[in-house]
Amino acid sequence: MLAAAVSAVSVVAAATAGLLLGASEASAGTLTGSFYRDPTSAVNQWLAANPNDSRASLISQRIGSQPQARWFASYNPSTIQSQVSSYVNAANSANRIPVLVAYMIPNRDCGGASAGGAPSYTAYRSWVDAFAGGLGSRTAVVILEPDSLALQTCLSATEKADRNSALSYAVGKLKQVNPSVKVYLDAGHSAWNSAADAASRLQAAGVANAAGFFSNVSNFHWTADEVNFGRNVLNSLGNGNLHQVIDVSRNGKGALGSEWCDPAGRGTGVAPTTATNEATVDAFLWVKPPGEADGCAAAAGTFVPDLAYSLAQNGVVTSPPPSPSASASPSRSASPSPSPSGSTPAGSCTVAYRVENQWDTGFTASVTLTNRGPAITTWTVTWSYAGNQQITNAWNTVLTQSGTAVTAKNVGYNGSVATNGSTSFGFQATYSGTNTSPTVFKLNGTTCS
Length: 449
What we know:
Radius of gyration: 22 Å
Structural class: alpha/beta
Mean pLDDT: 85
CATH class of the largest domain: Alpha Beta
Helix content: 10-25%
Low-confidence stretches: 1-28, 320-346
Distance between the termini: 51 Å
CATH topology of the largest domain: TIM Barrel
CATH superfamily of the largest domain: 1, 4-beta cellobiohydrolase
């Protein structure tokens, strides 16, 4: 069961001059660019109203700074088009990709903490029409109806058929109005339905006409588990044009058993990005805004500062995200960075390795590289572990491991490092016994001081 979202709030309409992404649809797997950070999100409204709160600095740095989805969850047929248009225009004017959650399917959440939705499927189709009318013509990501396919225990066979028909209609309508929209349907998460079951439900709802499916929305499961689950779903679907997106907003410490409703001790995940280093995954997204309740700490969708602060304290993201180029264009997934040419003179670099969070069997760490030599355009950092640490996922780097040896390469946007400039990346790993930090690092093959 997933938590509800807050009601949409309108933003000031922005001029739409300047092309973000082409009007023709980008094929699955070619989503590139940076996502939109909404200055009017619930967390940023709270930060603006509480600048002197002792929790504000950490929440701002680790949550408010990140691009997050906007949920459209209130039945407002007369204003939904203008609300969507205002949000999309604001993103377009910033040359960023908006992520929108359409959450209005009738009988959503089977009457649980996020109960609601349109009063009928006829009303839902009209709402979808208006929602689509606000999307414009540039690339946008639409997370279509969390709960709608994974959670169907309250539906009869006829009601399931009605829901599938409505979802299929929504996919078609969104793409008809804006061919550049990337629509993803609900696959639940890796600990819910089987991959084969999820694939069957997606097929019935018209996923073949969408960009793919989403998983882990409003949940906490490890990214690696969701990637593997998604691969299995894709194998069951047998459609090579489909991909997945994963909600990583609160999975920095994984799930707390099967607890889905504001579980304690969770943490924010990696920063939203299209640089996933995984062929089946179009993007890691922050769909559920961290700090907005699931329905136990407060009413579903309510921003709770203590929740946000706890997630920030325990999270993977420890600083604002890097700033890739503002412009973006649909293109094939970037190839791995070429091997660096030449070497850096001995002693011309320093590497700071820091364990950010550690628990019984796992940890997250950050690595900051400072270039003391001539400017470089690509980099490779290597080290070896003395123990049995095994890296499970990483951000801001293409990272591989062979035994105890680790190799980290730049991604497209952070390869250039000026003299005395720095760049950082991070990762999550498992371990047993002693988690000893490495002491010898090499940059482009030469040992750093």
